Amino acid sequence: MSVSPETVATLDYHVAGEPLRILLDAPEPLGGTMAEKAATARSGVWARLRSVVSEPRGHAEMFGAFRTAPVRPDSDFGALFFDANPASAFKMACGHGTIALAAAALAEGWVPPQDGWNQLRIDVPSGQVGASVLWTGKTVQAVRYRHVPSRLRSRDRCCPTSLGTLSLDLVDAGAQVAIVPLAGSSLTVDIPALPWLRETYLEVKAALTAQDGQAPDLVLFHDPLQTSEGIARYTGAAFFGEGNLDRSPCGTASSAMATLLHATGRIASGQQVRAQSPVGTHFEISVPEVAAADGTVLPMIETRPYATGRAVWTLDPQDPLCGGFFLG
Predict the structure, then answer these.
(1) What is residue 157's predicted lDDT score, i.e. its pLDDT?
(2) Start-end of H helices in 216-273
(3) Angle formed by the axes of helices 95-107 and 251-263, to 10°?
(4) Where in the chain do CATH 3.10.310.10 domains reside?
(5) H or E segment to which residue 212 belongs
(6) Strand pairing partners for 78?
(7) Considering Cα of 103, then 107, then 111, then 117, what sign does the dihedral take?
(8) With a cut of 50, which residues of the chain have pLDDT below it?
(9) Which contiguous run of DSSP H or E holds residue 204?
């Protein structure tokens, strides 16, 4: 007996070049916490629905998300984020994904919009994150994303690579982020250098795994912080997984960078820095609030996301590639 194909409706956004494919009308995973919901969603229908972000419908560096019911009484909704690798766990947090989902929440009427700044609270596995969406003229003009509490964990770690020994800093920002300044090395952050940065990322990941027994979740390479036309800025490239590159400045990596700059006295509370990506897009990042005496802060990112389209995908069980594939 043949089984009828299943269809999955999605809404796509990009945030400074990084895509997010939102599953519409996804079933609600069971669980009283977001971690429990994520564990439930690792199997069953959710695992199958993840195929819409992998090839041949998506690509190896695409992200997806779906809304869930909130787990806190003061949250608007919950969110689970995932990448195209079916072996990957759901993300603890996703900065660019939260920005896109917050914009979609108002544009789609999931949360009734009001003129001006609209405050949202969203549950993710690492905690509750906040977003403020500027709604003007029936459109989203900007989103301010408030990351989870973040702090500097260690400074000036020595990491051997084929470029020589690199010094890096580690930041807890809902994920473990290694921040590697490229000043003094032979590399800069630009498109021609990306293959070498990817190789260096794999070396840094292997070296930190050998030192600490675990790999960082993200590695951010950055050029020196500079000021021009009164704006402090840097260009960075954030890698994750098996060498995937975030096309945007990366929400989590940018939050970690803001945390580091504040902890080391290079920016004051409320001072904005422009985080630029290799493709020329940018976030405005800052630390508007110090959350605890131990230096824990709540970083903020501001940018404007854009909707890029809608689609209805077919999952045909007779198709040998129905579940998608992932080449890395």
Answers:
(1) 94
(2) 251-263
(3) 120
(4) 6-136+307-315, 151-295
(5) helix 194-212
(6) 68, 123
(7) positive
(8) 1
(9) helix 194-212
Residue 79 CA to residue 91 CA, distance in Å, equals 10
Task: For domain 6-136+307-315, give the CATH number.
Answer: 3.10.310.10
Confidence (pLDDT) at 305:
97
Q: Nearest 5°: phi and psi at 299?
A: -70, 155
**Predicted local confidence at residue 2, as pLDDT:** 56
Supply the pLDDT for residue 49.
Answer: 84
Q: What is the pLDDT of residue 230?
A: 83
Query: Which superfamily is assigned to 151-295 in CATH?
Result: Diaminopimelate Epimerase; Chain A, domain 1 (3.10.310.10)
Question: Which pair of tokens denotes residue 200?
Answer: 């260096």
CA distance 215 to 126: 18
Is the N-terminal amide bond of 86 cis, ω within 30° of 0? no
Contact partners, residue 210, CB within 8 Å, separation at least 6: none
- Provide the 3-class DSSP secondary structure of residue 84: coil
Condensed to tens digits (0 to 9), the pLDDT of residues 161-192 reads 988 899 999 999 988 999 999 998 888 999 99
pLDDT score, position 310:
97
- Record the pTM: 0.90
Contacts of the segment 265-270: beta carbons below 8 A, 24+ positions apart: 266/225, 267/232
Q: What is the DSSP string of 93-125?
A: --HHHHHHHHHHHHHTTSS---SEEEEEEEEET
Q: Are strands 77-83 and 297-303 parallel, antiparallel or unpaired?
A: unpaired
